[in-house]
Design brief:
The structure is a homodimer. By secondary structure, the first copy, chain A, is α+β, with helices and mostly antiparallel strands. Helix content of chain A is 33%, strand content 25%. The first copy, chain A, has helices at 46-52, 75-91, 112-124, 131-137, 191-204, 238-260, 279-291, 293-301, 306-314, 344-351, 378-384; strands spanning 6-11, 23-28, 33-38, 60-67, 98-105, 146-152, 160-167, 180-185, 209-210, 220-225, 268-276, 326-329, 332-336, 339-340, 355-361, 367-374.
């Protein structure tokens, strides 16, 4: 269920892609608060810079796919302003109320003429039924739209919901938002709390997901609360906890969809590390395994090649004793004390599943963390060896 | 020319591979000094632990391919001792004079029976003509043997030479020796100086080369000086500088051969970073570019997709201003001030070469460094999706 207070639309602007939806718009007709998290890449796209400066006032989101508007030089900021103005005028808003996001090829100037020409139709199409089109318009090499929703189980008061949409695919790494994600709620949340909850839940979901370790110049995650379901904003306390849990559920679902649809991916693997000295070391270890090309090709080959996992752990920077490591695949006890315990045939069978969980216990302390990853397949090479052509 | 004072041999021990040379031996009949550098992986193979403890006395090198003897549990050290003893007895040496190295699958117990059975023939075959066979015996997924040699241009005194052999292919990352390499010289070098020169030159060559960012459990680089060409060891001074230059030349050639023959590689690309704040940041930047799957697939696709390079630099941890970055491909001025300067057609043409150099100037300081890398191709996935089968 789409939260109350929002409309969306998408059109074929023909900015770079032909004959597909490539420009989307979401508007909060009622507006209570908004927040965002952004790429940590030193090279930040012009729309990232634009939206960072306006995140607290943003009640509309304009997104184009195909051109990232990153590293496009002096004109890039101007093109952001022109885009925002074109939308703002027709919505009777200020341009500071328009958030921008772009995804696509870096270094190509934004086709601003095509964008501006498309805006009137885009605004005209806005409707409470426009969200499916919006979800399609923001994709690049994704093979399917990604949305998630949940009803927030508040103990009392009017019902409210959270809906989210994302695009992922390549240049996905566990460092910041690492993709485009847009989340809407008709709850009302005190703005500072909203910022904090978004940062916390993004850290536990999107920032724990990796396709290829490459962090994009454009990663942005926005949340807008319309407040259409209740007037009094949630503050710290039980309602904040309930809201946070629902938000995390939506983000987690989107992160999983992104990794499941990673470029060329045939597997979704959750790498859980336990027993590290600290949570930081658990994350180092999980990321080293999740990003190792040799581990990822073994996932693709359905090869129970545990030596590659041990080798990745060993260069991760986490402190442990290799002969104390235990590894399970789902509920199969695979490795015990650094050596094969389960039958290889069982491990191979477990790795034939489309989705599974590797639980790695370093038996060296209380630290734990996890990272979602996918495999490296022929199609990753195919897609990225010819992405622009 | 093989330095004086050494013999080598190889046999088909049938330890795991069938009908190919898989066990090699080098012996220094005259011995003056030896040194080594080893993997920094927390998980270190049994032969690494063995050889580390005996590196100063090692005058023979026994190497098997196919089984890494890493993560093989309690029996692993025993198998090292048995291997070394078998060779030492026939050579009339102590087992502490035998260095060991293994490469292959992690977690498979070493086939010690096959090894021991093969040792008598191996020792019998030792000859000054055995080095080509040795170079073949240490390979795994390498497609060709890798050797390099040079005559040391000392100003005076008897001539001396350096010869080296290496195996690489997968699990190659810029962190320690990152493969197996064995270097022989008939010069005599003061032992402490030999250690220092090996460490310095390995850091500038092998530790600046990456195939996939994965650091093996078995990486080892040994040098043995026979002293057969001169009795007085080189100490600090001009001769040490000349020796170091020759040693670096041999290691650099081997490192290039390793990357050129990286698993599935079709390109050899040198990433030179200049103008970083410090050398450390230059290295961070060069490694981020050299290890980025998106950059490496663009190399494979001969796609002048410079945005991926900017994005990798941006997440590297190096400090710079994206709009001050210049990039050349060989002598083509490609990117100036963070934007395309050369014609894309020229950049594409330059990337069609089998080997080229990317020179990245961050224009932010005096730091420079470089990393050798290769592309990511379908064959990397093919080889590693089915390595053990």
């Amino acid at each position: 269920m789409i939260p109350k207070g929002f409309r969306a639309a998408a059109v074929e602007a023909q900015m770079r892609y032909k004959n597909r939806l490539d420009l989307g718009l979401i508007v909060a007709d009622e507006f209570q608060a908004s927040a965002g998290v952004f790429t940590q890449n030193v090279s930040q796209a012009a729309p990232v810079v634009w939206s960072k400066n306006r995140i607290a006032t943003g009640r509309a989101i304009l997104v184009n796919a195909g051109q990232a508007n990153a590293q496009t030089g002096r004109g890039a900021g101007d093109r952001c302003l022109q885009s925002a103005k074109a939308v703002a005028e027709l919505l009777l808003l200020s341009s500071d109320e328009i958030l921008l996001a772009s995804t696509g090829v870096i270094g190509q100037p934004l086709n601003i003429e095509a964008l501006i020409s498309a805006v009137p139709n885009l605004v005209k199409n806005l409707s409470v039924d426009g969200f499916d089109d919006f979800a399609k318009a923001i994709l690049t090499t994704d093979t399917k739209p990604k949305t998630a929703e949940t009803t927030i189980p508040f103990d009392s008061g009017p019902p409210a919901s959270i809906w989210g949409v994302a695009k992922g695919s390549g240049m996905i790494a566990p460092n910041m938002a690492t993709m485009l994600g847009f989340v809407l709620t008709d709850a009302a949340v005190e703005p500072k709390l909203l910022r904090s909850l978004l940062a916390q839940t993004a850290e536990l979901t999107f920032n724990r997901a990796t396709v290829d370790g490459d962090t994009s110049t454009n990663d942005s995650l926005f949340i807008i609360a319309s407040g259409a379901s209740r007037k009094t904003p949630i503050a710290e306390g039980r309602d904040a906890e309930i809201f946070k849990k629902s938000l995390k559920e939506v983000l987690d679902s989107l992160a999983r969809q992104i990794i499941r649809d990673g470029e060329g991916a045939t597997k979704l693997v959750e790498i859980r590390v336990q027993g590290a000295r600290t949570r930081e070391e658990a994350l180092l270890a999980a990321r080293a395994v999740a990003q190792s090309p040799l581990v990822k090709t073994a996932f693709f080959g359905e090869d129970a090649n545990w030596g590659r996992i041990l080798a990745a752990l060993g260069r991760s920077g986490a402190d442990f004793e290799p002969y104390r490591v235990d590894i399970d695949i789902d509920d199969l006890a695979w490795i015990r004390h650094g050596l094969v315990f389960g039958r290889e045939a069982d491990a191979t069978l477990a790795m034939k599943k489309r989705e599974y969980c590797l639980t790695i216990n370093l038996n060296n302390g209380p630290g734990q963390d996890r990272v979602l990853t996918c495999d490296f397949s022929y199609d990753y090479i195919k897609i990225n060896g010819s992405y622009r052509s």
